[in-house]
Design goal:
The protein is mainly α. The protein is built from 6 helices and no strands. Helix 1 runs antiparallel to helix 4 and helix 4 runs parallel beside helix 6. The longest helix is centred in the first third of the chain and has 31 residues.
């Protein structure tokens, strides 16, 4: 598997993180400029719309960290094969679905389903990687 194929899902996930960062900063700046929010409110993750983007941004440093670590280990150890790349794409799609629900309707049911799908994909990736490493496949 080429390095580019392995890294592309990572770059897309990082792109999502930056889009959420800029969206959060814009929403907070707009909130401050129109008087909807004060600095103290932002520190307390208020108002709701601004905190919604902020919380979605913060989520990109929870579950995806395990994804980054997996790829950081699998790539130099030459275990980033087709399964890892395909599952990486599935994981990134689940993160986009989660973020999409989070910053729009914020409906907990579909948001939770997208999050849990990502958890299952990531767990399968880690299990696959661990078995390959332990069994020296």
């Amino acid at each position: 598997m080429s390095i580019q194929m392995v890294l592309l899902p990572i770059f897309i996930q990082i792109g999502l993180t930056f889009v959420l960062l800029f969206g959060m900063a814009t929403a907070r700046g707009r909130g401050l400029s129109i008087g909807r929010a004060r600095m103290g409110n932002i520190a307390l993750r208020e108002p709701v719309r601004d905190s919604q983007l902020g919380n979605c941004f913060a989520d990109q440093f929870e579950l995806p960290v395990l994804f980054y670590i997996l790829i950081a280990l699998a790539l130099p150890l030459r275990h980033a094969d087709l399964f890892i790349v395909l599952m990486s794409w599935v994981f990134v799609v689940t993160r986009f679905a989660h973020a999409g629900v989070f910053v729009t309707s914020n409906d907990v049911r579909p948001r939770s389903l997208a999050w849990f799908a990502g958890v299952l994909v990531l767990a399968a990736m880690w299990l696959y990687f661990a078995l390959k490493m332990l069994l020296l496949i």
